[in-house]
Structure formats: C-alpha cells, structure tokens
Amino acid sequence: MATTRRSTKRAPSRGRSKSKGPKEKASAKDEAKSPVSKPVSKSTPESKGPRAAMSGSAVKKDESKRSKILTRVWYGALMVIGFLAVMYAGHFYVCLLVALLEVLLFRELVKVRYNTYINTIEETIPLFRTTQWMWFAVAIFYTYGDFVNSVMQNSEDLHSAVVNYKAGPIHALFSFGLYSTTFVLTVVTLQRDYIKFQLNQLCWTLCVLCLTVGQLKYIMHNIFNGFFWFVFPVLLVVINDIMAYVCGMTCGKKFITRPFLKLSPNKTWEGFIGGGIFTIIFGWFLAEFLSGFTWMTCPISIPTLWSPVLECEEDAIFKEAISTLPEQFFDMIPNQLVRFIPGVIEFCENGGAIAPCISGTPHHHHHFELQARVLPVQLHAIMLGLFASVVAPFGGFMASGIKRAYNIKDFDSVIPGHGGVMDRMDCQFLMALCTWVHYNAFVKLATVSVGKILYLFKMLPEGEQAEFLAKAAEYVR
C-alpha cells in the first residue's frame, strides 16, 4: 500500500523578513556609508569648551552659580555706593542709617524663633510680637536717650536746655516708666500651659537686645569721635572677610588638613591665617590714607542736617612722628637676624656708657632699637587689625550656629545675593565695641570734656560751686 509523503517546507511567516540577497546587502552598505543617513548635529556655543563634557544638570548648576556671583557683586557694589553717599551727606544721616540697621537686625533675629514656632504663638500666646517690640523700644529709648543727653552735656550751647528742662531726670523717669509697663505686660500675657516656652522666648529677646543694641550702643560715640573710628573698623572687617574667602578658596586644606571649626566646616586654617595677615597689611596703609582727610579725622559735637566742610586742629595721633619699637620685641628674635632688619641700631655698653656700637672697637651688646617715622594711628591700626582678624570673625561663627540651630540658610532676603542684614553685620558688633574701648583706653578719654565739666559745675549748688572754684585754684597753683 502506497503512502503519500507530506511536504516539510513551511510557508514564510508574515512577521519575519526575508533574507536579503547580494544586491540588497550591497545597497544597505552604501546606504550606511551615505552621509545623508547620519544625524546632523548643530554646533552650539555650549558644545564647545569646558561645558562640552557637562551634563544638562551640571550646565544649569554652573549657570546658576555664575548668576548668583553676578547678583552678589552687583548688589555689593550698590551697597558700597549707598554707604559712601550716606557718609557724604553727613554724620546725622549715618546715625539714622545705624538706627535703621538696628531695627532690621532685631527684626531678623527675633523672626528666627517666631517662624519656627508660629503655630504655637498665634494660637495660644497673646500680644507676643507686641511685647517683643516693646522690649526693643525700652532698650532704644534708654540707650540713645542717654547718648543724646551726653551730646547735649558736652556742648556749651545746649547746657541751658539740659539744665532748664531737666532733660536727664526726665529721660530717666520715662525710661523707667516704659520698662515697668513692658515688664507688667510681659508677666500678664504668660499662659500657664506655655510658661516655659514663653520664658525661653523672653530670654531669646533679651539676648538679641544684648547682641544688637548692647554692642552697637557705642557706635554712635565712634561716629562723633570722628568718621575714622567708624569707617576704619568697618573696612577692616570687610577686608578680612574677603581675604579669608580668597585664601580659603586658593589654599584651603593644602597645608593644614585639620578642620578649623566644626560649627563652620567650610572655614579653613589657611583662610583664617591668610585673612589675618592681609587685614593687618591693608590696615597699615588704609590708616595712613584715611588720615589725610579732615572729613575722617575731625570730631563733631552736634550733627547738622547738612554737614559743612569740617575743619579742626589735627590730633597728634594723625601727625607723623618718630616711633621707637620697644627693645623687648627684639629679645624674641636671634641677634644675627635682627642685624639684617633695615633701620635697626645696635647699642653697646662700653665702660658703663651705652651708645651705638662702633665696628672695629671692643664692645658688649646691650640692646637693639628701631626708630621709624610713622603715623601713631598706624600702630593703633595694627591692634585693631589683630582684633578684626582673630576675634571679630567669631561673631560670624555665632551667626552660623544660630542658622544651623534653626535650619535656615540666611536670616532674610532683603539684600539679593547676600541674604539679610544680619548676614552682613554679624562680625561688626564686636568690632564696634572694641573700637570704642580701644579709643577710651589708648587714644583719648571721650567720657570727659570741658563742656561736660562745665555742665556738672552748673548743676552744683552755689556753696559747692564756690568750694569747687577754690579747690580748682589750689590745683592750678
């Protein structure tokens, strides 16, 4: 029986492509080689240079960084121009600027905790912001009322107003009344369930007042003692800030890998040391430059709305003088090195007499001296420069600690690219206070003047006035 064999060939499926013949393969190769088949890439400026290897996100980040730097530089220049314009307007407007800055500083610092606990405060604590600003008003009224009183006492033309209207006692009375009112209101608004939180807030408010009003109280005295004592410390802090940043960026952690401060991980020893060295060098020449302008060196007694050209007898501190470096300074340096310092004179002892050494004669070394013609204020500039480099930056570290504690980047955004006023003024508080202390300790006792002594004389009873005159006559003899 014959059997039929079925064909084993399968029909080609629709999904599969047929194998290409030799002609088709050749045409495919030619098509691949053809330039038309390649995608045309458009060359853009971003595709060339260092950005060619960057991803899209990296390019955006780079552009954002450049934009931030330009914004920072632009608004920094505007701040400098504005500061110079206010200074040109006169002492009165500089005092107004300082008062405005104190208001903004207090607002930014108390707002830190207010924003953190806003839900608790708004729902449960009455008059919270009112009591905070009342404490600020008490501090400002007492501090600057006392300053105005002091200015009036130092000016003979205003003695009659102070004596006749009893400005001093009235100011003290109103200050105490305002303090008592604020104290009572603070206690009345305490809530039983939130008393611990409210006391913490009160302590923070008083701490902020110490940081701002307390430390900036004497900045007005610096302005009246002469613009030099206001401008020079401000510029020292600015120079230190810039040079510490530059030295940190260029040399940071290349010589000292140990962290400078855990509170601010980006700060480096190289930036801290380099900023200090450059600050002292710049301060030396900056003091000499500013001393050439009477607008900077002349003190004032009463500010006017439009300040005229200032003329005064130049203080000896701004006049060139021969200064002798203490001989103890050279005791710390080997004698062989001291002899190479230009201008150093070696003194020798010969037969009990001390005179400059003469080469070729037997002598016994006694000490070294260095005399130089400098402005005395330049020596003060070194001391202030050291403080601006070593101590003042810790005001900035304190501000960094506050921002870290409350997880904020900047205190505010009133200055684009820079943040808030506190972000720019954090190192200026200590510097202003140091300048006032230095001025009274080493330059001149500003708390005593002829005008103030005359005012106190007028306040004495007639019998004590006669006694004072008699004792003054004995003292003159």
TrEMBL record:
* Metabolic or biological pathway, per its Swiss-Prot or TrEMBL entry: Lipid metabolism; Phospholipid metabolism; CDP-diacylglycerol biosynthesis; CDP-diacylglycerol from sn-glycerol 3-phosphate: step 3/3
Top-level EC class as recorded in UniProt: transferase
Question: Where, per UniProt, does this protein localize?
Answer: Membrane
Extent of Low complexity compositional bias: 34-47
GO CC annotation, single: endoplasmic reticulum membrane
Residue ranges of the TM segments: 73-101, 170-190, 202-220, 226-247, 268-287, 377-399
InterPro entries according to UniProt: PC_Trfase_euk
Q: Any idea what this protein is called?
A: phosphatidate cytidylyltransferase
The record lists the organism as Triparma columacea
Cite the source lineage: Eukaryota, Sar, Stramenopiles, Ochrophyta, Bolidophyceae
